[in-house]
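Board notes, transcribed. Complex of a protein with nickel (II) ion.
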Amino acid sequence: MLMHIPDVLSKAQVAGMRLALDGAEWTDGRQTVGPQGAMVKRNLQLPEASALRRELGDIVVAALARHPAYHAAVLPLRTLSPRFNRYEGGGEYGFHIDGAVMAGGETDAYIRSDVSCTLFLSEPEEYDGGELIVSDTYGEHEVKLPAGDAIIYPSSSLHRVTAVTRGARIASFFWVQSMVRDDGARRLLLEMDTAIRNLSASGADQASILQLTGVYHNLLRRWAET
Ligand code: NI
């Protein structure tokens, strides 16, 4: 499931991050991928040990934790500390699949990547190219969002970032292990959650809403791993 999460960060928060990132030291993005990724990855990243990376990453995670649509769609269990990347001067990242298991979560435990997230920190008009292309069974989807907005997509999908031919594309990206591993099950839960909210807002029969809410939680109980 590909989903646009609007307004994760305010424009003021984005401006603050951009100011900090403009003065940051960047390193070759190939340091954090395996040999397959290294063949197709051409970008810059904040170093893993960077204090700024940790500081800004905490802001991203806190903002997402407050976002009801994000929580309903992802059902996050563990989140890898966000990274920050920069594409410019023809930089791109060819088709690849993200690693299934990664280290470096809050407790340095391994996490399984179920959901990939990209949070855009450059406005679309600041750069040419730099589209995130996600390939799934419905075809290829092209994503380029306003600064402060995020896209989530299944970590199991092939994806790439097209070459940035003008300006710079700055973004934060990270992976989440969901309480519900299966993308299709997460989607069903999100649809039921959305329908229950809409029924509540429309003043529908309370006993029926309660029954549906019970079904939601009992499905989550059946599928959740914690
Ligand atoms: Ni990737």
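DSSP finds six helices and 17 strands in the chain. The two ends are 21 Å apart (CA to CA).
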